Each structure stands twice: as structure tokens, then as C-alpha cells.
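wait is this the right file?? whatever heres the structure
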């Protein structure tokens, strides 16, 4: 039995398979590169989304804290109350001072 013709056909089949494999790798390579770029873009989008969620939580926390803080009108009312209290204390101080003077002047 002569193996030369079988060897030639096997060489041709191996050559065709090699060329086919090379073409497949050459054609599919951009798809692999694109897949890598898409994965990279997805990871960047996920990181940005996580950053936005953290930022939203911080803003929400500040807004929740601001609900309990006094407003401009509240501070104005407190200032007016303190001014009226100071007026009353000054009047009481003058009265106490006059009583003290009166008590000290009597022998």
C-alpha cells in the first residue's frame, strides 16, 4: 500500500484547515477587541453610577439635616426675643440699683 497520495491529501487538508483557522482568527480579532472595549466602558459606567449613588446619598443626608435647622425667620424671632429680654433685664437692673441706693442712703 502506497501512503504518498494519502500523505498529499492530508497535507492539503492541513493547509486548508490552517488557512481557515488563520482567516477565522483574523476576522474574529476585532470582535474580541471590541468586546474588551465594551467591557471597559461598562465598568467605567458602573463606577460612575456608583459615584453618583454615593453623591446622591450625601446630598440626601444634607437635605435631611437641613430640615431641622432654623430658618432666617426663626433666627430673626430669636434675635427680637433676646433684644426684648435685654430691655427687661436692663429695666430690672435699674430698679435693683435704685433699691440698693435707697437702702444704702438710710442710716
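ok assuming it is, sequence goes like this
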Amino acid at each position: 500500500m502506497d501512503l504518498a497520495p494519502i500523505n498529499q491529501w492530508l497535507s492539503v487538508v492541513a493547509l486548508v484547515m490552517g488557512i481557515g483557522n488563520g482567516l477565522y482568527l483574523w476576522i474574529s480579532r476585532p470582535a474580541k477587541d471590541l468586546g474588551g472595549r465594551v467591557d471597559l466602558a461598562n465598568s467605567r459606567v458602573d463606577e460612575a453610577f456608583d459615584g453618583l449613588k454615593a453623591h446622591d446619598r450625601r446630598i440626601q443626608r444634607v437635605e435631611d439635616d437641613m430640615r431641622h435647622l432654623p430658618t432666617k425667620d426663626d433666627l430673626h424671632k430669636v434675635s427680637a426675643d433676646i433684644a426684648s429680654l435685654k430691655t427687661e433685664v436692663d429695666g430690672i437692673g435699674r430698679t435693683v440699683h435704685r433699691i440698693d441706693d435707697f437702702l444704702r442712703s438710710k442710716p
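The CA atoms of residues 83 and 92 lie 14 Å apart. so i think its the right one actually
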